[in-house]
């Protein structure tokens, strides 16, 4: 077994990335204003002893908003790039980067939902976000990393194996397949150094975990026609709504009969 704190730092990085790629909340703005976001990002990257990951984290910290006006403009910057309310064109959904339409990707969505359900996770009440949103997938891996830390701390080798296999499978079948394409889109379409650096960090984090778990995700090819065409007739339909993500505060092992843990809790950095 590896050190439990190692997985806590992995969990924190996934959580912070999820927060930063979501619609900016007051918690996120305050964390950036106080430098807590930057400090925790760099601290956790350094703890994982990965030179590239640390370099990416330091770049995100360097590029994060650092004055009052920029911090207050976080929401409008996000909306212009990703939000439907200002016509943002950068998609944050897995199936947008795969082949086929949204209709033909129902199996993919069902598989993602199956991962969440296996750990008694669900979207919080009132959250109409799709399960393949970037923030949800990042927070799911954060949740599993925290569970790994707990199970290692308690010496539950069987539990560690189960949760580690789940992380490997999810990264290989889902997150690891599309975040490189997402990064390319951000690089091409986002004239914002913070989000470009953040996309680089996410890819570095996923690639580090791919090496850790001995997997090789089959990255989606160049972006195909938008899968929303199956529902919109080729228009610019969008399905964003509400917040997303998993609650990273739970560290106990999954077991049958646990109450559902709603995803979408925004408690800020650990």
From TrEMBL:
Region (Disordered): 220-270
Keyword annotations of the record: Chaperone
Source species: Haloterrigena salina JCM 13891
Keyword Chaperone found: yes
Record flagged with keyword rRNA-binding: no
Gene3D superfamilies the record matches: TorD-like
Coiled coil feature spans: none
Protein name: Anaerobic dehydrogenase
Stretches with biased composition (Polar residues): 244-255
One of the Pfam families matching this protein, by short name: Nitrate_red_del
UniProt superkingdom: Archaea
InterPro entries in the cross-refs: DMSO/NO3_reduct_chaperone, TorD-like_sf, TorD/DmsD_chaperones
